[in-house]
UniProtKB/TrEMBL annotation:
Protein name, as recorded: Mediator of RNA polymerase II transcription subunit 27
Keyword RNA-binding set for record: no
Species per Swiss-Prot/TrEMBL record: Ceutorhynchus assimilis
Main subcellular location of this protein, as a coarse class: nucleus
A GO MF label: transcription coactivator activity
Keyword Transcription part of the UniProt annotation: yes
Biological process, per Gene Ontology: regulation of transcription by RNA polymerase II
Entry-linked InterPro entries: Mediator_Med27
Similarity remark: Belongs to the Mediator complex subunit 27 family.
Localization annotation: Nucleus
Protein keywords: Nucleus, Transcription, Transcription regulation
Length: 295
């Protein structure tokens, strides 16, 4: 394969040199006799120049024929399809389409090759998801999906969370039944709009109390945008398909620690502000406050 590419590259270079020297011949013919030929026997000098150029072109043509003869011929004719019409384009912008087309063909061939390899690997491995049983004598029941649960189950979970904290106000909303979107207000500190997918938290955005309740619009305050990023990290940390209710309660306990967002100092540097921000991170186990640079 490498030898074929080297031979093709050599042949293309030979063609390039041939075209360059042929162009010099036509330029010499179009210019005719020039002042640098002198006044004496300038016709002879011009003829000698043409002979030299034509000899060079003849040698270049011989090199091209030799390079092409050393190439391995393709097994069959190439089917260029409609791409053959690209050679008829006269504008420079459209002539560049051929190179882009060749790159797309190469990309498609790689995708086809990689997908075939991936298919073979997947076919030779079985991915049956199994879970360890809690008892060796009893078989675990097949669990229903955490995304497809009755609205009453989610409602009871929200009510139980609302009773956990006295300084938390939860306002449920159901724009997409049965998946609710709740607004959780931590005293007068902040509020969070939390979207559920069944019994699992799907998305969280934290805002100031005076901002709107749009789920997909982030806060205009940097401190609440940073808290939102940390909530997404905690949401992934507490995620548990086997125990979704415990995962939601654990997340809410962690989120409740932001009630001291503007009052508790950083546990490490013992300062309230660092880079003009309060401690926006809460440790996932101890719930202690830290600055982003101190955690």
């Amino acid at each position: 394969m490498e030898r074929d590419l080297e031979g093709l590259n050599s042949a293309l270079n030979s063609v390039k040199i041939l075209r360059s020297n042929v162009r010099r011949v036509f330029e010499s013919i179009s210019n005719g006799l020039r002042a640098d030929h002198g006044e004496e026997s300038k016709e002879n000098k011009y003829i000698l120049e043409l002979q030299e150029l034509l000899t060079t072109v003849n040698n270049n043509l011989r090199d091209v024929e030799g390079s092409v003869a050393s190439l391995t011929p393709p097994p069959s004719a190439f089917n260029l399809g409609n791409s053959t019409y690209l050679s008829q384009e006269t504008t420079q912008e459209r002539q560049q389409l051929y190179g882009q087309l060749v790159n797309s063909y190469k990309w498609t061939d790689k995708i086809r090759e990689y997908s075939a390899l991936a298919g073979n690997i997947l076919a030779s491995n079985s991915f049956n998801k199994t879970y360890k049983t809690l008892s060796t004598t009893k078989r675990r029941k097949t669990q229903t999906s955490n995304h497809n649960v009755a609205p009453e189950v989610i409602e009871n979970l929200i009510i139980s969370i609302d009773r956990l904290f006295n300084d938390v106000t939860i306002t449920p909303n159901r724009p997409l039944v049965p998946n609710p979107v709740i607004q959780v207000s931590l005293g007068r500190v902040l509020k969070a709009i939390i979207a559920f997918k069944g019994l699992m938290i799907e998305y969280v955005v934290v805002k100031n109390l005076s901002e709107g309740n749009d789920l997909w619009t982030e806060s205009r305050y940097r401190v609440f945008r940073k808290v939102t990023e940390n909530c997404h990290a905690a949401m992934c940390h507490f995620h548990s398909p086997m125990m979704p209710e415990l995962a939601v309660r654990s997340f809410m306990h962690w989120f409740h620690s932001y009630i001291t967002l503007f009052s508790a100092p950083c546990k490490r540097c013992l300062k309230h502000l660092n880079c003009n921000l309060p401690p926006t991170w809460r440790d996932l186990r101890s719930l202690e406050p830290y600055h982003e640079e101190c955690k």
